[in-house]
Amino acid sequence: MEQTNQTGEAVATLTAAQVADPAAPLLHITDSRTTLDAVTKRFSKYQDEGFICQKNTDLTRAIVATTLARRAHTAFQWVKGHNGHPGNKKADALAGCGARKPAPDAVDVAIPRQLRITGAKLSKITQKLAYKAIRIKKAAKAEERRRTKERVEQVIRDLEEDLNVHITPETLWKSLGKDIISREARQWIWMTLHDAYMVGTHWLRPNMSDELKERATCKTCGQTETMEHILFTCTAQGRETVWSLLRQAWTASGGAARDPSWGTILGAACTDRNVSGQRGMTVAENRWAILAIKSARLIWKLRCERVIANDGAEFTKREVQNRWHAEINRRLTLDRRVAALLLGKKRKRRIQLVEGIWSPLLEDERSIPPRWVTDSGVLVGIKRGRG
After folding, report:
1. Distance between CA 380 and CA 357 in Å, rounded?
2. Which residue, 51, 47, 62, 56, is CA-closest to 110?
3. Residues 187, 179: Cα–Cα separation, whole Å
4. What is the pLDDT of residues 204-249, one digit of tens each?
C-alpha cells in the first residue's frame, strides 16, 4: 500500500468505522475531500465502473462495506485543514507519530462476501476502461524482472543519498506520466529502468555468436558497455562534455551543485517533497528534470550514432556542444508552443511555469519582451558558455 497523505486519510476513516460501536451513530469529521467524495457522491460512479481507475480501491471498498455493515446512522462532515479545528490538530499529531514508526501498521481491508461487488456495468464500460482493466490484470500476474528491480532500487537509493528524497517504486513509475517529461524522454526512461536496450551483457547471452558477443565491449574503453558505463564512466568524447554543460546551466540558474546519478536523472521528476520542504515540484526542480533527462538521453543518442552510424568515429567537442544547445533549445520551443495553445487559467499557469523554468537560462534575458513565451515573433535561446 503506497504511503501517501491520501492513503493515510482513507485509513483513518476506515479505522474509525471499524472500531466504533456499530449500534451507535458515527460522525466522520475529515479535511480530506478525496476520501469524502470517494465514499459519498463519487462512489456510485466508481462502483459502476468497477473501481478500475480509482486510487486506493481496496480502502474505498472497505470503508463503504464497513459503513453499510453498521446498524446505526453514519454521517460525514468536511472541515478545512490546518484551520484551528481541535480534532484536526490531534489527527496531525497522530500522523506524525505514525510517520516515525519503524514499520507500517497492518490494515484490514477484508470485505464480507455479501457486501462484495466485482466487475463493471456493461452500460458504463468504455474502451479506455476495458484496456485499463486488462493492463491491471496482466500486471498482477507478471513477475518482476531482476534487472528492473535492481535498477529501480538503485534510483531510490541515489535519490535518498543525493537529495534526501524518499520515494517508493510506485512513485517512480507514476512520475513518468508528468507533463514535464516529453513522450520520447518517457520512453527512454522506461527502457532504461527495465535495462531493455541491447547493450553490454545482453550481447553475452549463450545463444549469441562470437561476432555478436564482441558488441558487448566498448571500443573506446575496452570495458563492458552497459548503460551505466555509457552514462557515467565512458571516456569517449561527448559524455563529460554534456555533463559539464548541464552543471554550468544548472549552477548559472541558481541551483546548488549537483552531480548526475541514476536517482537525479531517472528520478528527476520525483522531487515533489524534501528538496525544498514544500509539496509539489518547484520551478527549479522542473528545470533540473528537463536539463538532466535531455542531457542523459543526448549522451545515449551520441553513443548510438558513434557506434552504429559513424563506425566508432568520435564527435568533436564543438559538435557535442552544438548538439546539446540544439536539444535544449528545441525543448524551449516546444514549451512555448504548448503554452500558446492553451486557454484560460491553464494558459496563465503554463506561461508562469515556462517563464520560471527558462528565464534564468536565456541569452540577454533583460532585453526580452514581456510576452516572449507566447509571441512566436520573439526569437529566444539559451545562453552559450565560452570554450
Report:
1. 14
2. 62
3. 13
4. 999 999 999 999 999 999 999 999 999 999 999 999 999 999 999 9
d(C-alpha 67, C-alpha 218), whole Å? 62
Q: Which residues, including other chains, have CB under 8 Å from residue 39's CB and lie 6 or more apart?
A: 13, 60, 63, 64, 67, 76
Place of cell 532504461: 192
- List pLDDT tens digits, range 10-51: 888 999 999 999 999 999 999 889 889 988 988 898 889 888
Query: Cα Rg for the chain, rounded, in angstroms?
Result: 25
Question: What is the rounded (10 degree) CA torsion for 192, 195, 199, 201?
Answer: 150
Q: Distance of alpha carbon 79 from its chain centroid, rounded?
A: 30
For residues 35 and 141, is the Cβ–Cβ distance under 8 A?
A: no
Cα(290)–Cα(91) distance, integer angstroms: 38
User: What CA–CA distance (Å, rounded) separates 166 from 159?
Assistant: 7
Query: What's the predicted TM-score (pTM) here?
Result: 0.75
Looking from the CA of 243 toward its CB, the CA atoms found within 13 Å total: 18
